[in-house]
Amino acid sequence: MSSAIEQLAANINFSTFKKAEDLKKRIWFTLAALVVYRLGTYIPLPGINPLIIQEFVRTNSGGILGILDMFSGGSITRMTIFALNIMPYISSSIIVQLMTSISPHLEALKKEGEVGRRKLNQYTRYGTVALAMVQSYGISAGLEKIQGATGMAVLEPGFMFRLSTVVTLTGGTLFIMWLGEQITSRGIGNGISLIIYAGIVANLPQAVIGTFELGRQGALSAVVILGVLVLVAAVIGYVVFMERAQRKILIQYPKRQVAVNMPAVAQTTHLPLKLNSAGVIPPIFASSLLLLPATITGFAGTGSPDTIMGKIGAVFAHGHPVYMTCFASLIIFFAFFYTALMFNPNETAENLRKAGNYVPGVRPGKATADYLDYVLTRLTVVGALYLASICLIPELILSKWSLPFYFGGTTILIVVSVTMETITQIQSHLLAHQYEGLIKKAKTKGKK
Question: The domain at 22-202 falls in which architecture?
Answer without folding.
Answer: Orthogonal Bundle (1.10)
